[in-house]
Amino acid sequence: MTAELSVDGLDAAYGASQVLFGVKFEVEPGETLALMGRNGAGKSTTFKAIAGLLPPRAGRVALRGQDLAGAKPYRIARAGIGFVPEDRQVFPEHTVEENLEIAQKPGPGGGNWNVERAFEVFPLLVPLRKRMAGRLSGGEQQMLTIARSLMGNPAVLLLDEPSEGLAPLIVAQIGELIRKLREMGTTIVLAEQNSRFCLGVATQVAVIDKGTIVWRGSVEQFRADPSIQARYLQV
Ligand SMILES: Nc1ncnc2c1ncn2[C@@H]1O[C@H](COP(=O)(O)OP(=O)(O)O)[C@@H](O)[C@H]1O
Ligand SMILES: [Mg+2]
């Protein structure tokens, strides 16, 4: 089986400071991979390198076998990689509905996403439909940015720390939503420091430390070996 997303030998740097060293992982269709690591381990940089915002110095980023490493961000997005960065940017002076409409376009994913479908799958956004996005709470903005990225019908969705800074009840709602997307067949990579949250939603785990993948396995294998958490994740 061809992996939906395959990253291999990925190096990335900010100026003279190299941050990623041969990052390698694969995600099979329909899986949710948790990319776990401490603050500063290289999770966001991995996503920026995949999405083309920080062009990699070396390596391969293949979507369904097509190498996209070093392509412009708009080309990578159009090829089917949806990216929700950690800062949850919305168009604040536009309504929730407009934020979704702006992003609606065909893509390679099988979800047939459009604005109406987004409101079906994200019922918490329905009463907010006409509200200015700048007036949403953090959790509501997170849901909106996830919904908006789905409007481009991506093959793979990269979610950078979707639970960060949100109250426990909202984190649980975001978790429900990610599980629902997985059940619909969406392929997801989730960057997280919060291992409790991602073990509840992911199927696969990759642990990153100092810019290198140091462990890879299923959620069951991860749970069975507490030494991995002790070594790479606890602060
Ligand atoms: N814009 C930047 N310029 C220089 N260094 C950066 C920049 N962004 C991140 N870094 C550094 O790269 C390393 C990895 O950061 P990052 O990918 O944001 O980690 P994570 O998302 O896992 O917390 C850290 O040492 C961080 O300080
Ligand atoms: Mg980060």
Automatic annotation (TrEMBL):
Biological process according to GO: L-amino acid transport
Annotated InterPro entries: AAA+_ATPase, ABC_transporter-like_ATP-bd, ABC_transporter-like_CS, BCAA_Transport_ATP-bd_LivF, P-loop_NTPase
Organism superkingdom: Bacteria
SMART domains referenced in this protein's UniProt entry, alphabetically: AAA
Transmembrane spans: none
Keywords on record: Amino-acid transport, ATP-binding, Nucleotide-binding, Transport
Matching Pfam families: ABC_tran (PF00005)
ABC transporter domain mapped to chain residues: 5-235
GO molecular function terms noted in the UniProt entry: ATP binding; ATP hydrolysis activity; branched-chain amino acid transmembrane transporter activity
Family named by the database record: Belongs to the ABC transporter superfamily.
Protein name according to UniProt: ABC transporter ATP-binding protein
Lineage of the organism: Bacteria, Pseudomonadati, Pseudomonadota, Alphaproteobacteria, Acetobacterales
